[in-house]
Amino acid sequence: MKNTLKTLFLSGLFLLASMSFGQTILPTTTLSAAVTTSSATTIQVTSATGIVATSTVLFIADGVNGEAVFVNSVSGTSIGVTRGYQSLGAARPHVSGALVFVASGNAILVVNVIPPSGSCTRSTLAYLPVISLGVNGGSTYVSDCVGGVWVNGSIVPKLMNFQLQLPAIGSVAYTGAGTSTAKATNTMYCTEIDLPYNKYLTGLGMLNGATATTDKWVLALYDSSGNLLANSAVAGATASGASTFQKQAFTTPYYAVGPAQYFACAQGDSGTTATLNLIPTGTQDTLLVKKFASQTFGTLAAIAVPTAFTTASGGYWILY
């Protein structure tokens, strides 16, 4: 009876999420200690924010399939759980630092269904991403509405512990990449990012030019429809580190699914001292890039995504 009630609990969450509540990013935390056995009934998390006893399901995105667990109790960051929630045989060990999705209230975990497909409207969806759990340890998919269509990606082992450079520069020194260009006042520079696979993103890094001082930047990630997905602090960070990738953390991490098209953008303040390395004609000029003038620094809104390449309009990026 207890397992049956839990299954009904998940089904109820799915029905609630099909209604329009205003789109919210599914919260995440991480395991602060390894789960060494499949029988352990207590796990340790970095943050217990949003985790409520008897009304929360956690999804540990570790390995190819991951594992869902039902929350029975919460004591600080020590969480009492029922393991292998989608099936009794799905419990498994997990590494410290593994990503954990928190599904509580109207959030969803969909059990034993085909991942969503076709067109979608991001603003009408209650929670994203959608996690489709495989029964008996079967394949699990994480799905997001990106550019007006569902993109489904499998859970991959290395989500957080490496950075991805896009577009790739190759073996040249950073000083030889692109064209070091003085920033225009109140302008945003955007570059197409073709993400090849799922990646949990904690921030972006933009390649500074030969002069990195005085002026400020805000970094932002958009989907292929121009929806804002994540950004660094809107107060901005002062340019620092000539000819290096200057990283800025997102205010809230974002789980990006792939393969899918995104856009990385750097919005600058009114100064014109700092430079950034921009992609010239003849190198990566098949990418879509664009400059947006007359920006209000620190105010981020949806954009009309680039539809062509224009020389010296978009920069180089690291996703981490």
What do you see in this structure?
The radius of gyration is 21 Å and the shape is elongated. The relative contact order is 0.15. The strands form six sheets. It has a six-stranded antiparallel beta sheet, with no helix packed on it. Strands 15, 17, 18, 19, 21 and 23 form a six-stranded antiparallel beta sheet that branches. A four-stranded mixed beta sheet has the order 8-10-11-12. It has 320 residues and is mainly β. It is built from one helix and 24 strands. The protein has one helix at 2-17; strands spanning 24-25, 28-30, 42-44, 56-61, 67-75, 78-82, 99-104, 110-111, 127-128, 130-133, 141-146, 149-154, 164-166, 179-182, 188-195, 199-207, 216-223, 228-231, 237-238, 245-256, 260-268, 275-278, 289-292, 317-319. It folds into two domains: 2-154, no CATH class; 164-319, Jelly Rolls, CATH 2.60.120.
Topology:
Elements (H helix, E strand, L loop, with lengths): L1 H16 L6 E2 L2 E3 L11 E3 L11 E6 L5 E9 L2 E5 L16 E6 L5 E2 L15 E2 L1 E4 L7 E6 L2 E6 L9 E3 L12 E4 L5 E8 L3 E9 L8 E8 L4 E4 L5 E2 L6 E12 L3 E9 L6 E4 L10 E4 L24 E3 L1
Parallel strand pairs: 1-9, 8-10
Antiparallel strand pairs: 2-7, 3-6, 4-5, 4-7, 5-6, 10-11, 11-12, 13-24, 14-22, 15-21, 15-23, 16-20, 16-24, 17-18, 17-19, 17-21
